[in-house]
Amino acid sequence: MIRRTLRLFVRLAVSTALTGYLLWKSHPRAVLAAAAGADWRLIGVAVVLVLADRAFMAYHWVVLLWTMDPVDRPPLAAVIRIFLVSTFVGTFLPASVGGDAVRAYAIAKLNVPGGDAVASVFMDRMLGVASLLVMALGGMLVLRDLADNPTIVAALGLATTACAVTLLLIFSGRTASAASRLLMKLPGALRRAGEPVLVSIRRYARYHRQLANVLACSIAVQTLRIIQAYYLGRGLGVEASVGVYFAFVPLILLVMLLPVTFNGIGTSQAAFVWFFARAGVRAAASVAVSVLFVSLEVVGNLPVGLLWAADRRGHGRQRPRLP
């Protein structure tokens, strides 16, 4: 617990320091001036597109859950609600795994076997990483010199390794046996928790069509996020072409996945400034775009958060008072 708290404080410190440094280097007045001259109609288009990417994200988690035995499937309305609420809560937790943990815990409370609950969230996350990797590699083909940057190489290497291990766990009996032997060496509680998850992950080997469907939806989600960034940039007067965004944003999203800051705050600003400088975009405009891009997550989740808070307040009022 203490170690986790320390890691959280370190990430918060890095996020704050990195964001503050970038604001100082790009001059806060220039950043504010870029935001003040924004065309909020174009930024509104980006906000609307957030709703579309949420719909795709919810759909592909449903596809993964619906590979379960029909008797174990939770109600569709409950699944959608859990997805939306966990996405909102995850906005304020360190890294994306915070929201994933909330989602797995909540779906398991609906009598979904624990192994299936964790496996569905894990597969959803890994297919999202795979879609991002596909699009980032496309960006690398356009910008071959980026292969010399250690941060980009590290992000691509981590994503590739995670996707390769996941594929081997699903489709390779030898890898699954090795993972099972590794689990046997863990303490009892960890072993008992890990074994059903491994079995559930292996089950997806029978569902090629569903996995391809989810991967395609994940690519659609990443495409929508790129278009969101494009409209934010256009709204702030950035003249870069849509092709520049398709080359840069997947790589930026990969950098944001690196577990070094709090929810990509700081790394996103640094990545936007560094990449878009290659297209001649001023640092102040890049910082403004990056702040709005991260803020879209909060804006897209805000209605869900308000409904969740109202729901919790309603449940609290219905509780009987103690004598």
What does it look like?
With 323 residues, the chain is an all-alpha fold. It has one domain (46-309). The protein has helices at 2-26, 28-36, 40-65, 76-90, 97-108, 114-142, 150-171, 173-184, 188-203, 208-235, 242-257, 267-277, 283-318. Helix 4 packs across helix 13 (283-318). It is globular. The chain starts with a helix and ends in a 5-residue tail after the last helix. The model is unreliable at 12-16 and 316-323 (pLDDT under 50).
Terminal Cα separation, in Å? 37 Å
Strand/helix succession: HHHHHHHHHHHHH
Q: How many domains would you count in the coordinates?
A: 1
Number of strands: 0
Largest sheet: none
Considering the chains and any ligands shown, give keywords for the structure:
13 helices; 323 residues; mainly alpha
Topology (elements, then pairings):
Layout: H1 2-26, H2 28-36, H3 40-65, H4 76-90, H5 97-108, H6 114-142, H7 150-171, H8 173-184, H9 188-203, H10 208-235, H11 242-257, H12 267-277, H13 283-318
Helix pairs in contact: 1-12, 2-13, 3-4, 3-6, 3-10, 3-13, 4-5, 4-13, 5-6, 6-7, 6-9, 6-10, 6-11, 7-8, 7-11, 8-9, 10-11, 10-13, 11-12, 12-13
